[in-house]
Amino acid sequence: MAWRGARSATGRAMVGRPAEREAIGRLLEAVREGLSGVLVLVGEAGIGKTRLLDHAAAEATDVTLTRLVGVEAERPLGYGALHRLLRPHLHRASRLPARQQDALNGAFGLTDTSRPDRYLVGLATLTLLSDAASELPMLCLIDDVHWLDPESAATLAFVARRLHADSLGLIFAARDGLDDRGLFDALPSLRVGGLPATDAREVLARAAAGHLDPAVADRIVTGTGGNPLALVELVAHLGAEQLAGVAPLPEPLPVSRLLEEHFRKSVAGLPPDTRTLLLLMAAAPTDDMAVVRHAAGALGLPAGAAAAAVEAGVLEHGPGAGFRHPLIRSSVYAAASGDDRRRIHAALEAASDPARVPDRRAWHRAEAVLGTDDAAAADLEAASDRARARGGYSAQALFLSKAAELTTEPARRAERYLGAAQAHLASGDHAAVNPLLDLALPALDRPSARARALRIRASAELFDTRNDRVPAMMLDAVAELGDADPRMTRELLYEAMHAAVIAQNTLHRTTLAEVAKAVIGASHDQDAPDWSPDRLIEGLALRTAYGYENSVPVIQEALAGLRASAELHDMASPLSIIVSLAAGDVWDIDAYAGIVGRLAAENRSQGALYSLTLSLTVQAYTEIWNGRLATADALLAEADDYAAAIGLATQGDLNKALLYAWMGKESEVRAIVATMDAVAAAYGLGMLRQLALHARCILALGMARYDEALRHALPAYEEDFPSEGNLMLPLLVEAAVRAGDRPTAALALQRLERRARLAGTPWALGLLARCRALTEEGADAEKCYRESIDLLGSVPLAAEHARSRLLFGEWLRRRKRRAEARDHLRAAYESFAAWGAALFAERARIELLATGEKARRRVPETRSDLTPQERHVALLAASGLTNAEIASRLFITTSTVEFHLNKVFRKLGITSRRRIAAALGGPTAG
After folding, report:
1. What is the mean pLDDT of residues 474-483?
2. 647 pLDDT more than 80
3. DSSP 8-state secondary structure symbol assigned to residue 61
4. 863-920: which CATH architecture?
5. Among 394, 389, 395, 414, CA closest to 404
6. Which residues are paired to 172 by β-bridges?
7. Radius of gyration of the chain (CA)
8. Residues forming a β-bridge with 806
9. Nearest to residue 863, comparing CAs of 898, 820, 901, 908?
10. How far apart are CA 324 and CA 177, in angstroms?
11. Cα–Cα distance for residue pair 139/141, rounded to 1 Å
């Protein structure tokens, strides 16, 4: 086999592993060709992951090589591992865009900037590495991923998910079951198992100095499962008689977890000074040998203390020798007694410069304590504040948890546990939240602290998508708080109302009306900033509790205030959802599109990818209503891309039901809405069911299945939830009229009459005029159709405008006014066909044929061959953005933008970005 002669970076020939080496070879080939590659090697301790990284390093000729090893002792230091990885490239940081540079400097504690967003840190890392790789392809090897600090691990996982055409490869090695947050689950992975028997016997034969009995070899191979480290270690420590089959083998053989015990025994036989030095090295940072030397001197260790460990094969040979295998490091630390660990940490504390590494010093001081120590706890709390300022929420949580353990006074201890729970929530480690809250709650003696604890617990539920449980939990927190903190009360009620309007009729222990009345009954902040959502929430609460008429003035005033505000901010619950519900309920497309567009831009500039996924999804609906289906598709694809980048579980095309309904993709719509209904029921997302009904209704109208459309529209009328309860009214009127159900049409029109006149917007009045036309005859109907077309043509609602023209054209044709009908039907057909609204285009085409005009079906054009990412890059390029601006907007690199544009040019048959808009045949993205 060609692979068998390959050698690792250590110079030893590697045995076997053809599949793994082939995968590494393909990755390196892609990197050399200007693309990118990611591979996660997963397996038990000692299975050979590090040797495969050595092989990759040996094969990485004409490639810049960067290596990083996770160290258990450094896990408390947020972004510490990332700093080690990027340190050779930090001279390039001045080339980063300003926000990325600030984020990276903040993460590394180099500046006093406000806490950086983790995804801006990730983008800065991606930009920095790809910049280096643009000069010479780069391969990054990251070993022992399970020991990286959580912030560094999350950043590298984010980078791995954003790579495309960057001449950059990442190979990770992680132990089985230790990535408990699933950061790397979505990346290409390869499970590394034991060697096959033939290869395992070859490893044994190479390692054995004397005779190896075949039966003994078979026993060792079977007993170790082909674990290479176990094979080599066994041969090194078994006697010649045992290998020859004369003396019995130990029972059981030291494999898997027993390997650690094997290493412990290997270290236990070394001189005391050597063992102390090894423990010191295991507890110390790998990048600060000066601290190790200083601490060793303070402990009185002789200069030659390491010699015995090198001779025994525990440490490597050479200057600055480290542990021969990472498993030895962890086993040394795990085997030490509590007294020995405290003595070592005390020495490291004394050797650490409080000005240069205050966090490490605080951690060593804490680890040196037996019992409680309020001074050490205070140092840790200060370290937690520094970690939070860097965006190191996992480190903040760890520091505060340890500080709580060292705290004497119960109430202060509880407050620190509470802070740790909040930090875990911010880091995304929701499983760690409730155990800490359970420790904190019994001793919390302030109403505000108890309310905060309940709020954190509710937020953990929300992030775990149990949305229906959140409102009642927030109301519990409000009750606990009483009058102690009006501002927190308003924030709690905002989050409760936000969750309630999404849950709708799936709520636990409360109702939407109860939540709404609590919001209305609370005191209001007269000095709230312009961007405050308080009035918007109050308007939605009035709508729910006391009827539509009471809500309209408040909602319109709130939307006007947000539009006029110089700044917009998301809170704990993203504002885009609330804006969409409120603006949709009063049919204000200008406020809807304007505010959500600004929120998306703000989320993008801040690197707030979770909020950005929501604002882009909401923004896509405005594009659908404006007939820009390709742009909506690109926005939804971008939102899905970011959801995947931050590790959110997605449900495929869950948000594309309405888009696909307009496109006439019947099978896709039916599959998606079935998933939407299931997800809505499982996670308490009643609003999702309403959106599914809307998509079903549009699809049925496009297919002229009016009875079916009526069936889907009626629940929205009966339940009358904000936004969808109103947006579905004109669909219900149309479906009822065409299905012959005049009483239902009259009831829906009556409600629409009242509400549209209260809203008073062109959207509302244009839909009202269209619905009146559907129920009128003669001159009154014609007048209403023309009014509808005029009103809807004055706002960015091209799809609704075209629908009115289609309905008017149908009405004119049935009255034998074919020439007039042709004008409207032709305009509707050309619009629908250009957008890809297939069913409505076909309806218009058939009507147009009936007037005597020929209208051929349009053949799908070349642009449909573009992937969503290519289409989005093309639309942004057509709008005038530079490659660098597109890269910053989409959280990718300029080389990836260039890669996509080259494919766009090739597929569209053009050579200039100036011709993209014409080749796409549609409007550009804004």
Report:
1. 88
2. no
3. T
4. Orthogonal Bundle (1.10)
5. 414
6. 40, 142
7. 33
8. none
9. 908
10. 23
11. 6
CB-based contact 436:418 (threshold 8 Å): yes
Cα(809)–Cα(646) distance, integer angstroms? 48
| Contact indicator for 696, 665 with CB cutoff of 8 Å | no
Inform me whether the pLDDT recorded for 249 exceeds 80: no
| Mean of pLDDT over the chain | 87
Q: Are 494 and 471 in contact (CB under 8 A)?
A: no
Q: Find, among 261, 271, 203, 264, the residue nearest to 231 by Cα.
A: 203
Which residues are CB-contacts of 273 (< 8 A; sequence separation ≥ 6)? 301, 302, 305
What pLDDT does residue 572 have? Answer: 65
The b/e string for 44-82 (b: 16+ C-beta within 10 A; e otherwise) is bbbbbbbbbbbbbbbbbeebbebbbbbbbbbbbbbbbbb
CB 623 within 8 A of CB 798: no
The answer to whether the beta carbons of residues 858 and 841 sit under 8 Å apart is yes
Residues 6+ apart with CB under 8 A from 599: 568, 570, 574, 575, 576, 579, 611, 615
Distance CA 452, CA 437 (A): 10
Higher-confidence residue: 526 or 863?
526
Any bridge partners for residue 170, and if so which? 38, 140
189-191, strands of its sheet edge to edge: 64-69, 138-143, 168-175, 36-43, 189-191
pLDDT value at residue 5:
30
Task: For residue 862, name the pLDDT band (cuts at 50, 70, 90).
Answer: very low
Q: Which residue has the higher pLDDT, 335 or 23?
A: 23
Q: What does the angle CA 607 – CA 168 – CA 125 come to, to the nearest 5 degrees?
A: 30
The whole-angstrom separation of Cα 51 and Cα 7 is: 10
Q: pLDDT band at residue 9, thresholds of 50, 70 and 90? A: very low
Burial class (CB in 10 A: 0-12, 13-18, 19+), 256: middle
Entry pTM: 0.80
Q: Which CATH number fits domain 2-191: 3.90.1010.10, 3.40.50.1820, 3.40.50.300, 3.40.50.620?
A: 3.40.50.300
Tokens representing residue 343 in the block = 């003595």
Q: Is the pLDDT of residue 923 over 50?
A: no
How many helices (H) and strands (E) in the chain?
47, 5
Q: Please, are residues 195 and 226 in contact by the beta-carbon 8 Å criterion?
A: yes
Confidence check: pLDDT of 428 > 80: no
Tokens of 478: 């409000």
More confident site: 653 or 479? 479
Nearest residue to 889 via CA among 610, 607, 630: 607
Cα angle vertex 835, ends 768, 811, to 5°? Answer: 40
Q: What is the pLDDT of residues 546-600, one digit of tens each?
A: 999 999 999 999 999 999 998 888 766 788 999 999 999 999 999 999 999 999 9
Do the bridges between strand 36-43 and strand 168-175 make them parallel or antiparallel, or are there none, so unpaired? parallel
Return the sign of the alpha-carbon dihedral for residues 488, 494, 500, 503: negative
User: How many whole angstroms separate alpha carbon 175 and alpha carbon 615?
Assistant: 37
Please compute, for residue 749, the number of CA atoms within 13 A of its CA located in the half-sphere on the CB side.
20
Q: How far apart are CA 795 and CA 591, in angstroms?
A: 11
Name the token pair of 272.
């005391």
Say if residues 187 and 156 touch (Cβ distance below 8 Å). no
The string of pLDDT tens digits covering residues 451-464 is 888 888 888 877 66
Q: Are 683 and 468 in contact (CB under 8 A)?
A: yes
Domain ranges (residues) in the chain = 2-191, 197-255, 265-351, 863-920
Q: Which of 226, 246, 250, 224 is nearest to 237 (CA)?
A: 250
Other C-beta atoms lying within 10 Å of the C-beta of residue 527: 5
Q: How far apart (Å, rounded) are the C-alpha atoms in residues 421 and 780? A: 64
